[in-house]
Fold this protein.
Amino acid sequence: MGSRSTATSDPLTRVLRTRRELRAALADSRRPVGLVPTMGWLHEGHRSLFARARAENASSVATIFVNPRQFNEAADYTQYPRNEARDLTMCRDEGVDLVFAPSVDEVYPTGFDTIVHVGAVGRPLEGAARPGHFDGVATVVAILFGLVKADRAYFGQKDAQQVMVIRQMAGDLAIPTEVVACPTIREPDGLALSSRNVHLSSEERAAAPVIHRALMAGRAAWDRAERSADPIRSAMRSVLSEEPLAVVDYVSAADASTLAELDRLSTPALLSVAVRFGSTRLIDNELIDPS
Ligand code: PAF
């Protein structure tokens, strides 16, 4: 574990680089503590998480760490957008108390040899499309939960399966941090905010709202009293097929608590899609609650 002292002072926001600095700063923090783990390249979705963490807790902590272990393609990791100065400005604007922005070696020191693997809920959808991805997510979030010992941690519902994996991990490992899912923030045309949107060309950006239109078509089928899952999936696929730049990875109508694909929508269901536009892969979802 590194021991360089690089904590920078700011009247409102302190930036910590090492586990030791983080622990020391947390010892002086008022409880409850709200945590927002991020990989940086912050956008309005993150801003809403910071605002909620601040509103519901006496202290707020953000983490900025592009986690190499959750990328299953090396190029995806190296090309992931980064701009720490800009990210820190947003954290300061939002009054985040502590920002933990460690190096890779600080998170995974020499000798680190543990993988947190979540079972069934991590297997379909993103788990199938991106082998090892959720092991990386669960491992880094377990480390962050262990370090921060937050009362609550805030994640975007856009990554619905990620939220389920993290909840399962925290419950199974008896980590008392409450996992809070927050609403997806969207552009006016419906595109869910994502750090990956920056990679879209202007043509791809113009095409990408088809994702939300497809999910809305699924919901509209439900609203018309369609209860069979296949026609609901077909309604989503049909909208996506109208967009030549959209290459569909999956279209799903699954049980919202197990992610098992449904025949009929009688339990809360998660409609979700993953679509590629060129080299950029985007995901989004819509929750259907029969009650
Ligand atoms: O959603 C993200 O940004 C990441 O997966 C997370 C939760 C910060 C773990 O690296």
The radius of gyration is 19 Å. Residues 37-39, 67, 70, 137, 140-141, 159, 162 surround pantoate (CB under 6 Å). The chain has a mean pLDDT of 95.
